[in-house]
Amino acid sequence: MQEKKQKEVIVKAEDKSKTVGAADPALTAAVTGLIKNETVAYTMSRVTGEEAGTYTITPSGAADQGNYHVTFVAGTFTIKAAESGNTGGNGGTTGGGGNTGGGGAAGGGNTTETTDNGKQDTESVTVTNEDGSTTTTTTTTDAEGSKVETAVTKTAEGSVIEETTVYKTDGTKVEEKTETKVNGDSIYEKVETTPGDNQSGRRQNLQGSRY
Q: Which tens digit of pLDDT belongs to each residue from 81-136?
C-alpha cells in the first residue's frame, strides 16, 4: 500500500515590537497550508531580554502532525529605546542608538548590511534561530516608496522557505503581495490592494489547489 504523502504546512512567527519598559504584546504566528478548518499544534516563545535590540521569536511543536509535515519559521522581536523628552538636543545621540540593534547581534547572531545607490535603499538582516535555522530578510525601497521584502529561511533539515512581500505604490493606491515558497514550490499567495481596487482582499491558497 502506497504511503500517503504529507502536506507541507508553515508556521511562521509574526514579527513583534515594543518600547523599553512596556509589556510584551501577544506572540502570534501565521499558519499556511492547512485544509479547511484543520489545525496544527504549536507554542510560541522568545529569547529573554528587556534591553533595546532584537530577539528571536520561536514557534515550536512536532514536525509530523497527522496529514501534515510542519515547518517552523522564526520571527523577530524588536525592543525600541524609549524616546527622549528633549528630541532636539539629543537627536544625534538618538541616532547613535541605532547601534543598540547591533547588541542583538551579540545575543542572537544577527548581522545587518545597508546599501544606498541613490535610487534605492537595500537592507539585509540575517538571524540565527534557536533551532539552528537561519533567516535572511532583505528589504529594498525605491524613491517612490515601493518596497520589496524577502525573507529566506534555511532549516536544519535542508529545506529553503522563501516569503516575498511586495508593497507597490503609484501615489493613489498600494498593492501588497505575499508569496511563500518551500524548496521553490509556491504554496501560498495573498494579494491586497487599497484603495480603489475590486480585487482587495483576494486570497489564493495554492496548497489547497495542489491536492
A: 988 754 444 444 344 444 433 333 334 455 556 666 656 778 777 877 777 777 88
Position 182, amino acid:
V
Q: Are the C-beta atoms of residues 41 and 60 closer than 8 Å to each other?
A: no
Strands, sheet with 134-142, edge to edge from the N-terminal-most edge strand: 111-116, 120-128, 134-142, 147-154, 160-169, 174-182, 185-194, 203-204
d(CA 29, CA 41) in angstroms, rounded, equals: 12
CA distance 19 to 189: 32
**Are 150 and 162 spatial neighbours (Cβ–Cβ below 8 Å)?**
yes
All 3 cell numbers of residue 19? 518600547
Q: Which stretches within the chain are classed as H helix?
A: 91-96, 101-108, 206-210
Residue with cell 518596497: 147
pTM over 0.70: no
First to last CA, the chain: 19
DSSP 8-state assignment for residue 132? S
User: 195: which DSSP letter?
Assistant: S
Q: How far is CA 124 from the centre of its chain?
A: 13
- Burial of residue 153 (number of CB atoms within 10 Å: 0-12, 13-18, 19+): buried
